[in-house]
Structures are given as C-alpha cells and as structure tokens.
Amino acid sequence: MSYKDKKVITIGMVSELTGLTERKIRYYEERKLVFPERTPGGTRKYSFLDVERLIDIANKMEDGMQTFEIRKMEQKQLRKKEVRDRMLRGQLNAAFNLRK
Question: What residue ranges carry the coiled-coil annotation (predicted)?
Fold first, then answer.
C-alpha cells in the first residue's frame, strides 16, 4: 500500500488542503463521490488520493458538472479499467501458458 492510499488525514486538514468547507466535503461523501474511513470514535479519515479526488470533483463542479454526472463518469472509467485489466491478464495467461 502506498502512502497515498493510507487514510490518515482529518476532515479539518482536508478542508485546509483543498479549500473546501467541511460541509462540502461531507456533501461529496453523501453523494458517494468520496469514501473516508471512520475511527471507532466516528472521526473521518482521508487519504492523499482522497484529497486529490476532492480537488478534481470541485473543479468539475465548478465547470458545471452535477454530482450524478461525475459519479456516472467515474463508474464508466472503472468499468473500462476492469475490462483492460481482464484483457491484459488474458494476454499474459496466453503468452505464458498460465491457468487460473
């Protein structure tokens, strides 16, 4: 796991890093655009990748996109990546005569 994946940043720090209000960050969570972890006490923890993602989401919103459009676009990109990964695994299996 990369340091960018570790969920260690509090919502207050994310707000400072992104310029977004804590309310806006929670809204993006409600809209299923970002997925912080929760500590046993309920504190949200974000990763550096989440920070980058929130900045990207804010830029898209500023450009006029709606949250459902962003989510739909990201789901489409994820499906494309899954297909690419399956194709690559198939090519590697064929090239090296590997079986699942």
Answer: none
Tokens coding 8? 């260690």
Which of residues 69 and 1 earns the better pLDDT score?
Answer: 69
List the 44-46 sheet strands across, edge first. Answer: 9-10, 44-46, 37-38
Mean pLDDT of 57-72: 96
The set of long-range contacts for 52-58, using a CB threshold of 8 Å and a minimum separation of 24, is 54/14, 54/18, 54/20, 54/25, 54/28, 55/18, 57/28, 57/33, 58/18, 58/19, 58/20, 58/24
Question: Largest Cα–Cα distance of the chain, in whole Å?
Answer: 53
Q: What is the SS3 assignment for 38?
A: strand
pLDDT of residue 100: 56
